[in-house]
Design goal:
Helices cover 0% and strands 57% of the residues. The strands form two sheets. Strands 2, 4, 5, 6, 9, 10 and 11 form a seven-stranded mixed β-sheet that branches. The termini are far apart.
Length: 113
């Protein structure tokens, strides 16, 4: 059974950092894992994904965010630095297993002074 639980969100000032964690029970090494976000009034958008040795980032976060995974711990991380107000959103962990998609409940990130 797949269950995704995100944590690590909060309120941070512009320029600050946060590290999000996704506890992914049922995750397998071959699953694509990713982080997505959704701001009020906007569609959910890709932030970053990782599969095998490959990573993919939205242009808006390249050079600022790093996605990583620890398969032994069934955990996925998103290290976010140089945060901007436009990064404010609810962040969701996603597991993609051969096209079947699973999301967690999300964690709120607010970037504001």
């Amino acid at each position: 059974q797949i269950q995704l639980v995100e944590s690590g969100g909060g309120l941070v000032q512009p320029g600050g950092s946060l590290k999000l964690t996704c506890a992914a029970s049922g995750m397998q090494d071959y699953d694509e894992m990713g982080w997505f976000r959704q701001a009020p009034g906007n569609k959910r958008e890709l932030v970053a994904t990782t599969s095998g040795d490959r990573t993919n980032y939205a242009d808006s976060v390249k050079g600022r965010f790093i996605i990583s995974r620890d398969n032994a711990k069934n955990t996925v991380y998103l290290q976010m630095t140089s945060l901007k107000p436009e990064d404010t959103a609810r962040y969701y962990c996603r597991l993609n297993r051969w096209g079947s998609l699973y999301y967690g409940q999300g964690t709120q990130v607010t970037v504001s002074s």
